[in-house]
Amino acid sequence: MSIVCLSALCLLVVSTPATATLRCSGGIVEEGDSASQVRNLCGPPDHVEAWQGEPPAMPGAVWFYDRGASRLLRVLRFRAQRLVRIDSDGYGFGAGGGRSNCRPGEPMPGWSAYRLLVACGAPQTRTVIGHIAAPPPPDSIKAPARTGQRLVYRERWHYPFGPRAHTREITLDNAIVTFIRTHGPGT
């Protein structure tokens, strides 16, 4: 009987998802914390992408903490002023920032808005599409796409790369690059 109980307990521990946390100089933040708690413990973010929402959409924000080239770029997602997810986006950039000499083929799906801004600078135009129903992204390239839809905040950023290079129209959903379309040279 004790082996069965111990096995059940081990299975429960293994199957319980861990809540993501972030250690800051002021303490540890975790999903569910308010935006003001996060700001008090971690300080102001290096960059914020925010949007308003009306039902069924909620206001949202993505905060970026860049702690340098040897540490992960942390991405904190908020809905209605509550931390709902903590991610990372590769290594940060540090005081000097990125290269800021973006090449046409460099922006990639999966990049965060912050990574795109550091690498390529501000877009020539930034078009707000607003909240739309979109299919959820696959968990990985190997995994098939999940079914159903989710509400996302969509923007399109335009980057011209000169009169001889193709212009890139970059679609961002909730501050993440999801699609890149190429237009003719200099358009």
Topology:
Layout: H1 2-15, E1 21-24, E2 27-30, H2 35-42, E3 47-51, E4 60-65, E5 72-79, E6 82-91, H3 113-120, E7 125-134, E8 150-159, E9 166-173, E10 176-185
Antiparallel strand pairs: 1-2, 3-4, 4-5, 5-6, 7-8, 8-9, 9-10
Alpha-beta content class: alpha+beta
Written as H for each helix and E for each strand, in order along the chain, the element string is HEEHEEEEHEEEE
Outline the low-pLDDT stretches.
Answer: 4-17, 140-144
On the 0-100 scale, what is the average pLDDT? 80
What gyration radius follows from the Cα positions, in whole Å?
Answer: 19 Å
Write down how many β-strands occur, each being a DSSP E stretch of 2 or more residues. Answer: 10
- The span between the termini is 73 Å
